[in-house]
Here is the input.
Amino acid sequence: MTQDTNPQTCEEFQAQLPELIGSSEKLAMNLHIQNCPRCRSLLSDLMTIAEAARELLPTVEPPEEVWKHIESAIKNEQGLRESETGRE
Amino acid sequence: MVGNVAEAEDLTQETFLQLHRKISTFRGDSAFSTWLHRLAINVVLMHLRKKGLPLISMDEALEPAPEGNPSRGFGASDPALSGSIDRMALERAVTCLPAGYRLVFVLHDIEGYEHHEIAAMLNCSIGNSKSQLHKARLKLRDALRTYSRQEARR
Here is the structure.
């Protein structure tokens, strides 16, 4: 892979960022990011957010009532199915 | 994913009802947990579609940036986010994202799906999924920096 020789503006870099951000190889070869502290700061922020998001896996357990509702809804549905089968 | 506890509970119930109806179609091609997770995501997607929320391709016309300047994120005077992000602030900011952005962000950055999987689920292009994720992260960055500034003033 060759290194970019044509420096980009911030806007051009930003336009490509959705594609670049998934490729550390392409980012490493990008001249703009090497020379622009503001874009480096932006990139660092976006990566920090992505890393922090991994810690956000839902930890909330549904309340007991939800399980009771589920149980009664399943029983209702099963009852309906059985009565329909009985009629056939 | 829906940003609302009552809705999330309703969807949990709907997911388990679907599980009860469809369990006979589980063939063991994937882990049961993966299958159930997919089922839950489909229930959420169907719910959001029924509500008429655009799941993808929401351009800025639907969610105009108040400042109207797409490159505002580059302001030189704005401090960068610190290495550690306040978890509660991030959770709140995710909840406030527009539905389409939130969906892709949750699927990719939180749940760990790849762009090609998200594209298949949402019936959109991989590029679209990447672009939605990027916009979601930019919005979160704005929200988190606002939060930091407010905290600093206290």
Observations:
- Chain A touches chain B at residues 10-11, 14, 17-19, 21-22, 38-39, 41-42, 44-46, 48-50, 52-57, 62-63, 66, 69-70, 73-74, 77-78 (CB under 8 Å).
- Chain A has one domain: 10-87.
- Residues 1 and 30 of chain A are 11 Å apart (CA to CA).
- The mean pLDDT of chain A is 85.
